[in-house]
């Protein structure tokens, strides 16, 4: 259930903060994004819960298995699924293209290659954000539990929440600064129809967050 809630929130955030190209505001595209979003949420939530279900189903409850499945595996999987939902929800951007502009802000055309680059960058930054946010506290909590610093379940939960909040606060600016909000793409990497529309060597696009 928590996986479903998390991916519903992040998918909604992705829908609201994608590239604002006018073509992506068409009803048919919006409808497609909603269907993609529902599919991405369901798939990501199922994949995220799969290791725990698999462990319980086949009674794989050795200490090593529990460490891997409950402590180490969920965080990278969450990061991977976060990147996956970004790619799926914003797929119309590289299917239809996004606006690219010159240095003066004049729109030169729609580029699928710029859309692909924008989505890849956002997916990578999102994966790093959530993967690190949940992986690092899991590793630290393993040592906290071994050292018996927090002796009650309530204390352990408080320490875990504090660690997650601290890492998230630290990783958020790192994630946002991995790629500039106003992305750059070389003219030579764009479609032929855009090449013929400008002599600028570099063009710009809104990456989204």
List the helices and strands and how they pair.
Blueprint: H1 2-16, H2 27-57, H3 63-72, H4 74-89, H5 91-96, E1 98-101, E2 107-111, H6 112-147, H7 153-177, E3 182-186, H8 192-195, E4 202-206
Antiparallel strand pairs: 1-2, 3-4
Q: How confident overall, as mean pLDDT?
A: 81
Structural class: mainly alpha
Gyration radius from CA atoms, angstroms = 21 Å
Question: Helical percent range?
Answer: 55-70%
Total strands: 4
What is the total domain count? 1
Extract low-pLDDT stretches: none
Major sheet strand order: 1-2
Percentage of β-strand residues: 5-15%
Number of helices: 8
Categorize the overall geometry.
Answer: elongated
Order of helices and strands: HHHHHEEHHEHE
Which structural traits does this protein have?
209 residues; mainly alpha; two-stranded antiparallel sheet; two-stranded antiparallel ribbon; 8 helices
Can you describe what's shown?
The protein is mainly alpha-helical and 209 residues long. The chain has one domain. 68% of the residues lie in helices and 9% in strands. It is built from eight helices and four strands. It has a two-stranded antiparallel ribbon. The longest helix has 36 residues, at 112-147. The chain starts with a helix and ends with a strand. The mean pLDDT is 81.
């Amino acid at each position: 259930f928590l996986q479903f809630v998390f991916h519903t929130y992040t998918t909604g955030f992705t829908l609201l903060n994608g590239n604002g190209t006018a073509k992506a505001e068409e009803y048919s595209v919006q409808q497609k994004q909603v269907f993609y979003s529902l599919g991405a949420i369901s798939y990501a939530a199922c994949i995220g819960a799969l290791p725990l279900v698999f462990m319980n189903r086949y009674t794989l409850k050795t200490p090593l298995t529990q460490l891997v499945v409950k402590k180490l595996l969920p965080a990278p999987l969450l990061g991977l699924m976060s990147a996956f939902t970004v790619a799926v929800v914003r797929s119309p951007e590289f299917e239809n293209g996004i606006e690219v502009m010159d240095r003066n802000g004049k729109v030169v055309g729609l580029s699928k290659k710029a859309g692909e680059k924008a989505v890849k960058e956002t997916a990578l930054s999102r994966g790093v954000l959530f993967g690190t946010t949940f992986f690092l506290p899991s590793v630290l909590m393993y040592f906290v539990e071994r050292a018996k610093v927090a002796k009650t379940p309530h204390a352990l939960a408080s320490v875990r929440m504090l660690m997650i909040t601290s890492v998230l606060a630290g990783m958020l600016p790192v994630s946002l600064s991995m790629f500039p909000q106003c992305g750059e793409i070389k003219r030579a990497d764009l479609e032929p129809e855009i090449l013929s529309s400008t002599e600028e060597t570099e063009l710009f696009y809104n990456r989204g967050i």
